[in-house]
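Saturday, quiet lab. Running sequence design on the structure tokens for the scaffold JK sent over.
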């Protein structure tokens, strides 16, 4: 479970950064950045924070709202950044993810002294020094909070996309290549939000088969 141990290795304001949406075939990739300004944080939030992928959707929503409430109370700051499907196609998913991370960090109202980034690769030319941690969303409160922010925000975007394109099950599959998504492509083709550089979508564009 996450704790403060990684944050304690650094002085000054430390932010955690994580992404959501690298694997889906459609939509933006999202990044969250969260920096706790105090350790006097709602105990319910700290007790339940974890890697967002390990949390039920209802719990993620509850934690997302608690994070926003702590931000409103001035106890933390957060930012959310996106890179579009078109940017993913132009840059590749790794570089687009780094772009979303830059955008998330730049939305923080205070420039952090250090950024803790989930994963094993670091974005270049960041606004502050960075360190990466494999599985960091299960180790650090800041990264775990960022993972929840990114995941819930992106899921909500996909729910809106499902209203615009109702034949693909985006509200349930978040754009991953599930059976209902594939059936939607076969029946209705692609949307402008599909990532054309992804192998299944590229194959469909070339052969009309998936």
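Result came back. Writing it out in full:
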């Amino acid at each position: 479970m996450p704790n403060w141990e990684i944050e304690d290795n650094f002085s000054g304001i430390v932010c955690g950064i994580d992404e959501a949406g690298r694997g889906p075939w459609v939509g933006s990739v999202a990044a969250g950045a969260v920096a706790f300004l105090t350790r006097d944080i709602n105990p319910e939030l700290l007790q339940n924070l974890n890697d967002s992928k390990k949390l039920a959707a209802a719990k993620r929503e509850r934690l997302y709202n608690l994070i926003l409430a702590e931000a409103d109370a001035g106890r933390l700051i957060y930012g959310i950044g996106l890179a579009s499907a078109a940017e993913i196609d132009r840059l590749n998913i790794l570089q687009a993810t780094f772009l979303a991370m830059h955008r998330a960090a730049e939305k923080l109202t205070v420039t952090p002294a250090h950024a803790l980034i989930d994963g094993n690769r670091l974005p270049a030319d960041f606004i502050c020094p960075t360190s990466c941690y494999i599985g960091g969303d299960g180790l650090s409160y800041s990264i775990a909070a960022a993972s929840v922010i990114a995941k819930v925000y992106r899921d909500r975007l996909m729910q809106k996309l499902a209203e615009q394109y109702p034949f693909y099950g985006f509200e349930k599959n978040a754009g991953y290549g599930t059976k209902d998504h594939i059936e939607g492509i076969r029946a209705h083709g692609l949307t402008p939000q599909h990532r054309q550089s992804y192998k299944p979508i590229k194959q469909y564009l070339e052969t009309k088969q998936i």
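Notes for JK: The chain is about 45% helix and 15% strand. Residues 98 and 124 are 8 Å apart (CA to CA). Ask whether to fix the surface positions before the next round.
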